[in-house]
């Protein structure tokens, strides 16, 4: 869900290589404003993995099967 945000791409040079990153924003001016605020950013940690928000067919099928045979988790 992007709530009307577009993805804006930025690039910079570091150690002889070009690097890129993206910023979600409402428009180009909003993207530039968000970029200017990155000087106030802090390191929160290292990204280990990205998990998809959807479970796909397998999750849908298991949910359907559970609902059909009325297996409910203990309360």
The largest sheet is: 2 strands, antiparallel
Overall mean pLDDT stands at 88
What's the arrangement of strands in the largest beta sheet? 1-2
The tally of strands reads 2
Structural class: alpha+beta
Keywords:
75 residues, alpha+beta, two-stranded antiparallel sheet
Brief summary:
The protein is built from 2 helices and 2 strands; from the N terminus they run E-E-H-H. The protein has helices at 28-36, 56-69, and strands spanning 6-14, 17-25. It has a two-stranded antiparallel ribbon with strand order 1-2.
List the helices and strands and how they pair.
Elements: E1 6-14, E2 17-25, H1 28-36, H2 56-69
Antiparallel strand pairs: 1-2
Account of the protein in words:
- The protein is an alpha+beta fold.
- It has a domain at 1-40.
- It has two helices and two strands.
- The protein has helices spanning 28-36, 56-69, and strands spanning 6-14, 17-25.
- The chain has a two-stranded antiparallel ribbon with strand order 1-2.
- A hairpin with a 2-residue loop joins strand 1 (6-14) and strand 2.
- The longest helix has 14 residues, at 56-69.
- The protein is elongated and about 60 Å long.
